[in-house]
Each structure stands twice: as C-alpha cells, then as structure tokens.
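Entry:
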Amino acid sequence: MTRSILAASALVMIASLSACGGENGDTDGNTTTVLHETCGPDVCPSPPACGSGEVLTCCTCVRVPVQDAVTTTCDLLGEYCASTAGDPDISCFMPDGYPTPAEPTLITLHGSVDVYATGGGSDGVLVQVYQVDGEGNVGTLVGEYVSTADCADHEADFPTHVETAEEEADCPGPCQEKISPENADCRTLGYYVIADVPTNTPLVIKTSQDGGGSLWKDMLTFNIWF
C-alpha cells in the first residue's frame, strides 16, 4: 500500500481556534456564547472582564468574529482546501467523534518535498520519519530518504493534485510549484520514498539539509498520523 504526503521543509501552522469558557455581548447588544470549550476552568481561575464586542477564550479576551467561518475553496488555496465553501466539519475534534484507531500496518510513504519559502528546487533534502516517545518527544527513527530530482518520473503514482488556477496555469503538477506570485518562474520539487511506515501511530517528520549546511533549515512536523 502506498500513501503520499507533502513533507514541508518549512513548517506551516494551520490553527483552528475555538473559544472557551466565555459569554459576552457584542457591539450590537447581542450575546455571543462559546460553543466548544478547549480549556478547563483551572486554566483561568481569575478570568479578566471582557469589554463590548469581546469574548473570553482561555483567559484571553478576543474580538467576536464578524462573520461565520466557512471552508476555504481550492481556487484560493492549493492545500488544505475544499471544492466548495461550506460549514467547517469539526465533529472529529469532539470527544464523541474521536475515531477508534485500527491496528498499525506498514505502508510505503512517498511524495514531493514542498517548500514554504523562496529558492530553488528541493532535491537534496533529508526526509526522516520518527515515532513519538512516551514523553511526546522525537523517538525511534522509522526511515529516511534524501530527496531526488526525478519526481516527474513518479507523478503518475501521486493522488489527484489540487492547485490554484494561477499555479495550474504556470507550474502544473505535483512536482513543481511557483516560486513567487509576481512571476511565472517554477521550481522543481524533490521526490522521496520511505518504506515500512506504521499507520495508526503518532509520528514526526523532520526535514533538513543532507550532510549539514545552511541551505535547508531543520524543521519538525508533529502530529502526523496515517
């Protein structure tokens, strides 16, 4: 069995913010109530008094959103996007929606090394997969691979690739991407493949410069789960 993933050489944080423990009035005199609590009462034993148009979330007063959250469509964002705008589905983040993990199996992980920065192609990047130890830190090495410049030779094995309209026109496919929105220049993405990666197991992916050096900074992405 084969799975694909984009192992970024620069970390992109995608956060889902849920308020907790608060109920305050907005600027129109209406009441805003927090629906999903993400921190317990012990986090904030002495909560601050929030002003008009604010709501309390984890001991911090934040502005009440001016519109409902919707999913981002793929014409605006090439990754982590939806085909149509709609209500975000956060049911899997609720305790009664937690999935029951199956027993681990071994898969082969492959993909292109995405780059969150300017610069050239991403071949020569050391991609490493680790298990997580009992303390939540980087544990045992599962496998590693130095990315190569032959990504296009494996493109047919990749899943359907979603791109913005601009990137699809200038740099189509999963093995290249636009360097800057200001021009049509493309960079080639490196390819990696790592065998015997366990599913249903918390993992960490680390990317770094093969052999040392300063071209690619060390980046670790936690909470990887297949």
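Residues 1-23 have pLDDT under 50 and may be disordered.
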